Structure formats: C-alpha cells, structure tokens
Amino acid sequence: MDFKDGNVYFKVPHNVSSATQFSESLNTCVQFQVATYQKNGQGVQVFRSLGYTEAQIINQGSRLCMESKGWALYTVVNNQVQHVDRSERVYAAMSERELELARDLLVGQRAWYLQYAPQVLAVGDLGK
C-alpha cells in the first residue's frame, strides 16, 4: 500500500504496512521535526537564509526521517513513477557521487536516530 503526502508517495517494501502504521510513523517524524525546529534556532536560520520556508524545513526533515526508517519516496512525473529523495530530486537523474552522498546521508541519519532519538525509529521502523 502506498501513502501520499503532498506530491510525494511513501512506499513500503512488500506492502506490509497499514494506514495506521504509516500515520503513526509519519506523525512521530513530524512531531520530532517540529520540536527540533523550535529548539534549533541557529540551524533554522541557516535554512531560512537559503530561502527555505518553515514548512519546507519540517517536510524535508520528516521525509528524511521516513527514509531513514526504510520508507521509499516517489513521485509521478509524466505518468512515470520516479524514486525521489526528501527534496523530490529524482535518484535516476543523480550522478554516482550524488547517489553515494544520498546513501551516506540516510545511513548517517539512521545511526543518529539510533543513538540520539531511538523513540522516533521505534514507531514505524521498517529497517529493524
């Protein structure tokens, strides 16, 4: 089963997740991102100076959180399914270096959650 948030769909391998599991997992990520946003003034200011809105900062953080849990993100462009990252950049269009950096970011983010916020991964983690 696939779930939609804005233009992005969340896909789970082997369709093993329910709507309730998805909702709880995404809500946990969003709540964590909002709390982090409220606490991290300097980091937020950097993103704001780069032109990001509050919603974009929280959405991208939440999408990265969901990817860290094992959820795949994709969008439909010209009737074709495209696997995308948290910023809706198409993986197939990335260079080898960009793909490597994207993978490293997910691995690093997951490790960070495991160490500093395991309660976030505890809800809807597909990578167990």
The gist of it:
By secondary structure, this protein is of the alpha+beta class. Helices cover 55% and strands 15% of the residues.
User: What do the pLDDT scores average to?
Assistant: 88
Task: Quickly count the domains.
Answer: 1
Provide a count of the helices: 5
Q: Describe the sheet with the most strands.
A: 4 strands, antiparallel
Strand content: 5-15%
Written overview of the protein:
There is one protein chain. By secondary structure, the protein is of the alpha+beta class. The chain has one domain (2-121). 55% of the residues lie in helices and 15% in strands. It has helices at residues 19-39, 41-49, 54-68, 96-116, 118-121, and strands at 2-5, 8-11, 72-77, 80-84. The protein has a four-stranded antiparallel sheet. α1 packs across α3 (54-68) and α3 crosses α4 (96-116). The longest helix is centred in the first third of the chain and has 21 residues, at 19-39.
Q: Secondary-structure blueprint of this entry?
A:
Layout lengths: L1 E4 L2 E4 L7 H21 L1 H9 L4 H15 L3 E6 L2 E5 L11 H21 L1 H4 L7
Antiparallel strand pairs: 1-2, 2-3, 3-4
List keywords for this structure.
globular, single chain, alpha+beta, 4-stranded antiparallel β-sheet, 5 helices
